[in-house]
Design goal:
β7, α8 and β8 form a beta-alpha-beta unit. The two termini are 21 Å apart. With 430 residues, the chain is an alpha/beta fold. α2 runs antiparallel to α11 and α7 runs parallel beside α8. Helices cover 39% and strands 14% of the residues. The structure holds 4'-deoxy-4'-aminopyridoxal-5'-phosphate.
Amino acid sequence: MYQYESSKTLFERAQQSIPGGVNSPVRAFKSVGGTPVFMEKAKGAYLYDVDGNQYVDYIASWGPMIMGHAYEPVVKAIQAKAEDSTSFGAPTQLEIEMAELIKSMAPNVDMVRMVNSGTEACMSALRLARGYTGKNKFIKFEGCYHGHADAFLVKAGSGLATFNIQTVPGITAGAANDTLTAPYNNLDAVKQLVAEHKNEIAAIIIEPVAGNMGCILPEPGFLEGLRTICTAENIVLIFDEVMTGFRLAAGGAQQKLNIQADLICYGKVIGAGMPVGAFAGKKDIMQYIAPLGNVYQAGTLSGNPLAMIAGYTLLKELKENHAIYTELEQKTVYLRNGLDRVCKEAGIPYTINQLGSMISLHFAEHAVTDFVSASATNIERFKQFFHAMLKRGIYLPPSAFESWFLNHALTRDDLDKTIAAAADSLKEII
Ligand code: PMP
């Protein structure tokens, strides 16, 4: 039987000096209730908390742990690199090698600028799109999350969806006025916005496969339609591949779905869990960034050697061993089929969305294709399911509005254990 006594004690203590006891809101378990589990260590597919409980991990640090936790080549590379200093504030050869590696894997990338988080990547890509086009407005999609920069916190997914935060105090009308929103998968709504704001729209930013309202797939023709509109209207198409980049394929969603973006944002994956992000694209746009151009963007710790060596080591492995993606997808389809079977046996309404190693289980019969349909699922049932799974040693995202991420270290036994736990959990909660 799982005990959480040490986590409870730490959570009490944390709340005295950290807002809500956490450094990022979804971690607080506020929406699912109960005490957040404080982690001590992780190896491969398993997490170990401060009470000595072991979990099969389906968060993978929200994406980056593609090869599993504490992946030995990455750990060794970081250790060795740290001997040579943890930061220089000056250029290094490793940053070139990292940029070249990303270019060799990701389509439509001539140049890469490293930053320190996904938020920074999206915020900077938007500024660049505005600087490049000389236009101010942009379109984002309801339920998509692009980090916590002011302009993006309008109808956003992830924690804002989880906590049902509609408007964020502290964001000025000025910052939000240029943000236009459309429902995901709704090309007509985009066409209408573009017509209403002719020659005013700098960018359309999208998660090409959404992971911040559960996992939601683009319907056939949707991304292609965005591409056509952007090309016709001189709008920069920004793919936010913070979750999908180097996860869905070596070339990310661009490669997996065969769509070309103008700017691409990367995040956590390219640091193998170290704090890092990047935005990238063709030279004609990227050359507007300082010091080549006047669109200013900078970072004291950008290109940090520990983050670079961690990311480089992971990406190199992903580049050289393509079987990883096939195997990851096989594992995810196996899990999907298992969940499908046990949900059917339980006789509950459900929908499973999956692509590559991203998957989510929605408790509703209707297709989950956008934020409205994701919100209309049985969130209460998800909360119960989350806790039932947790006490059976399965660590799912603590929100119905987050994708699950599989890692390559998961074994057939882990997947069978997860499917059996899902069957038991459904019996318990129905
Ligand atoms: N974009 C997407 C698609 C994300 O999922 C996230 C974070 N989950 C971000 C941007 C922001 O990244 P970060 O938390 O590293 O700032």
